[in-house]
Amino acid sequence: MYRVERLGAGQAEAYLDRLVRLLRDAVAGGASVGFLPPPAAAPK
Predict the structure, then answer these.
(1) How many CB atoms sit inside 10 A of residue 42's CB?
(2) Residue 33 C-alpha from the chain's centroid
(3) What whole-number distance in Å separates Cα of residue 38 and Cα of residue 2?
């Protein structure tokens, strides 16, 4: 069974090589991957 977890910056750094390999493998397998910038903060 798989589990999805949100990683903090420090945790993600520890997994960076594996995450890059996963992303490359997904794209090489035909996955369409897109990135959006985070929404702007609401004005105060």
Answers:
(1) 5
(2) 10
(3) 27
Q: What does the alpha-carbon distance between residue 18 and residue 22 come to, in Å, rounded to a whole number?
A: 6
Of 17, 22, 24, which is closest to residue 4 (Cα–Cα)? 22
Joined together, the tokens standing for residue 37 give 């910038």
1-44: per-residue pLDDT in tens? 899 999 898 888 999 999 899 999 999 999 998 887 777 877 77
Are 9 and 19 contacting, i.e. CB atoms less than 8 angstroms apart? no
User: How many CB atoms are located within 10 Å of the residue 15 CB?
Assistant: 11
Give the global pTM: 0.61
